[in-house]
Design goal:
Blueprint (H helix, E strand, L loop, with lengths): L1 H23 L6 H18 L5 H4 L10 H20 L5 H11 L3 H7 L6 H11 L6 H11 L2 H9 L7 H10 L4 H9 L2
């Protein structure tokens, strides 16, 4: 019962934060609050075993403070969605990437399905390497899984075209980041 009460209060708290963010003018007006909201949404979905996709995030969006009845309905909907998702025929990660490549699927749907962070580098690997068929799907999946560590993605995220330190790049390469040169070249052209 305590877990259920915790989920009720978490959803209500999430709604309050979303209302505050909306009144401030949205994510561009308070990026830190927006990041906090995303982290809460991500944690709720992970607790249900659901990937953080736009379809699942919509269950956690509130325009006004929900009633207890509305919160209960969202919880039921999350349980139902999680049950359907977890009981569905799961594809292997490789098959998921192969299908994404063939169907040119949106990275905002595919990467969370694979439990890969949505990050500028993972988007680059997805869009410029996978969809452009510049390497094998196996190598691409390995790279996405490898860099899906906060310290690696955080370091890559700090690289700026006008402030690239060769020792940082060498450290990333030595750690095994595969497409770093292509990523830097691609971003220098933007």
């Amino acid at each position: 019962m305590a877990n259920h009460d915790f989920l009720n209060s978490t959803l209500t708290g999430l709604a309050k934060l979303q209302i505050v963010l909306d009144k401030k003018g949205g994510p561009t007006e308070d990026g830190q609050l927006f990041e906090q909201i995303l982290a809460i949404q991500d944690q709720i979905l992970k607790n249900f075993g659901l990937p953080t996709t736009p379809d699942n995030e919509k269950f956690l969006f509130f325009e006004s403070l929900p009633t207890d009845f509305e919160v209960e309905n969202r919880i039921k909907l999350l349980h139902k969605t999680a049950t359907e998702y977890l009981l569905s025929n799961a594809k292997s990660e490789l098959q998921t990437l192969r299908d994404a490549q063939e169907l040119n699927e949106d990275p905002f749907i595919v990467l969370p399905e694979l439990k890969i962070s949505t990050h500028i580098y993972t988007f680059f690997v997805y869009n410029e390497v996978l969809l452009q068929r510049k390497d094998t799907v196996e190598n691409i999946l390995h790279e996405l899984k490898f860099v899906n560590q906060n310290n690696i993605l955080g370091t890559i995220g700090k690289l700026k075209p006008n402030n690239i330190k060769s020792e940082v790049i060498q450290t990333l390469k030595d750690s095994g980041v595969k497409y770093l040169d292509q990523y830097i070249f691609f971003n220098s052209n933007l």
